[in-house]
Amino acid sequence: MDEIFGIPAPLLFGQLLLGLINGAFYALLSLGLAVIFGMLNVINFTHGAQFMMGAFVAWMLLHYLGIGYWWALLLAPLIVGFTGVVIEKTMISRLYKLDHLYGLLLTFGVGLIIEGLFRNQYGSSGMPYRIPPELQGAWDLGFMFMPVYRGWVVIVAIVMCLATWLVIEKTKLGSYLRAATENPALVQAFGINVPRMMTLTYGAGVALAAFAGVLAAPIYSVNPQMGANLIIIVFAVVVIGGMGSILGSVVTGFGLGVIEGFTRVFYPEASATVIFVVMAIVLLLRPAGLFGRA
Amino acid sequence: MAGPGFSGGDFKHEEQVFLGFTRTQLIAFGLMVALVVISPFFLYPVFLMKVLCFALFACAFNLLIGYVGLLSFGHAAYFGMGGYLAGHAAKEWGLPPEIAILIGGATGAILGLVIGAIAIRRQGIYFAMITLAFAQMVYFFCLQAPFTGGEDGIQSIPRGMLFGVFNLNSDMTMYWLTAGVFLIGFLLVHRIVHSPFGMVLKSIRENEPRATSLGYRTDDYKLMAFVLSAALSGVAGGTKSIVFGIATLTDVFWTMSGEVVLMSLVGGLGTIFGPVMGAVVIITMQNYLAEFGAWVTVIQGVIFVLCVLAFRRGIVGEIGNWLKVRL
């Protein structure tokens, strides 16, 4: 059990774990994108910047106020989600009657502003953020050592995805949301405040991105560019999965993370591009995406 | 796919008097040519050449968004790859500059054919995301491929002798070549838009199902437009690397794709002169703000937001709307 396919087992499992962690972030971010797109018909290009803001707010809370990881996990999504509400109210809500592409262009611009401001203030180099003491160390699983924090990230991400799915599919609020996605005019006629629902949906999607950012802070260094490159990969994930189903985007996110991890073991040169290759193949075979509706 | 703002408004009908130009457009075109000819005697030619390369790039991009309604968010791939291949051809293969620039165009065309054939399977927002993702794939390829020189890029690309006669090491000679390439590219885009082929493209923008029902294979038309746009972007990138003697990762990065979108948006989507105006404005701004570092990014973001919220016609579009003519 030391070697699998001629690859040392610890290396293989190590990369698999890394793949699962990347997959957790792909899943959380593509989930937020799908929720926002379903309701607002806007692809939120600011998502990467909001992920980065989540990590930065966690860092600032610790650095300036001495507030630790656990409170940051709650406060950062609320703070960043609130900025999202402001962005929706003041800007995005003016574009609903226009071509959807304007929403993409607007959120791209907002992302540039946020990233530029953070780069001015904090430079391009990363800030370290320590793993909280409760989650330090590693478990010995017999075949490999598993850092506790990494296991935590994967588990929390899965729980968060399931919770989002439950809220949307099983609660009354979720049923309003799904109805408003199908036919906003009719839902409004029943006396439900659809514009406010859109604002809150955007805020929630943004909060989800910020939550992922806090989770990422101890793993990656906190820096202004951390979201920009990630979001392009998440776009590819969204194209592969299709934005039709919540569980679909979660499964696709984790699956692609694992595929990327394996590629890093067997053919490292392709690890940066493998997701885009998968996207090309999916587009050729199933243009609507794996879980999408044509 | 078209929405409010992408297509025209209330315009006087004007006869096309020459090469598909209306009288107003012909005056504007004459003015532009005059500026291209006069300005190198007053302004720094290297700066002007940068403007012209980006103006051509923006015109090529605008062919897709303005006349077919396809927003490509990955045009840096064709621009940057065209630059790399042209630079490689001039430096390593010792080919003359005119051939190197054509190789840049061919690179853009081939890459555009491959990516376009897959990307046009989806529309609207998905199309934008797919082109962006493929451009990022091209970026990673350039980061690793040996011939691009990784982080260093391809440096000291020789300008060489045009047609074996004109020495391009003189900035003025180089300027006339760049100006020539730009004007040919500009007229080509204009010709494409006003050809029967261009009419079909516009009908796809306005109502694709109806164009299909009239018997047009819309996918073929979209792909052809995509390849033409990518080829011209490659020409622009190739010219740029010959002018500056350098081809780097900056030109294939997603920020470059964003910049060309911004130029077209500022100048006016779907106007003939808009992308040129946008390139002048954005490159001038970058030139003056270069010392402020990341503030350039912030200001570009602010311009994006302002254009989308309040200024969707762009500079040339607003002028045209005010004069009630198409520009």
Automatic annotation (TrEMBL), chain A:
- Stated family: Belongs to the binding-protein-dependent transport system permease family. LivHM subfamily.
What are the TM regions of this chain, as residue ranges?
A: 12-35, 68-87, 99-118, 149-168, 200-220, 226-259, 266-285
Task: Extract the Pfam families matched here.
Answer: BPD_transp_2 (PF02653)
Q: Which organism is it from?
A: Roseococcus suduntuyensis
Q: Which CDD domains match?
A: TM_PBP1_LivH_like (cd06582)
Q: Which GO terms describe its molecular function?
A: transmembrane transporter activity
Q: What is this protein called?
A: Branched-chain amino acid transport system permease protein
Where is it mainly found?
membrane
Alphabetized, the UniProt keywords read: Amino-acid transport, Cell membrane, Membrane, Transmembrane, Transmembrane helix, Transport
Q: Where in the cell is it found?
A: Cell membrane
What is one term from the GO cellular component aspect held by the record?
plasma membrane
Give a yes or no for keyword Coiled coil in this entry: no
Q: Name one GO biological process term.
A: amino acid transport
Q: How does it sit in the membrane?
A: Multi-pass membrane protein
TrEMBL record, chain B:
The keyword DNA damage is annotated on this UniProt entry: no
- Annotated membrane topology: Multi-pass membrane protein
Transmembrane feature ranges = 26-44, 51-79, 99-118, 125-147, 174-193, 223-249, 261-285, 292-311
Name listed for the protein in its UniProt record: Branched-chain amino acid transport system permease protein
Q: Which domain of life is it from?
A: Bacteria
Q: Which GO terms describe its molecular function?
A: branched-chain amino acid transmembrane transporter activity
For this protein, the record's Pfam families field holds: BPD_transp_2
Location comes to: Cell membrane
Which Gene Ontology cellular-component terms appear in the entry?
A: plasma membrane
- Phylogenetic classification of the source organism: Bacteria, Pseudomonadati, Pseudomonadota, Alphaproteobacteria, Acetobacterales
Which keywords describe this protein according to UniProt?
Cell membrane, Membrane, Transmembrane, Transmembrane helix
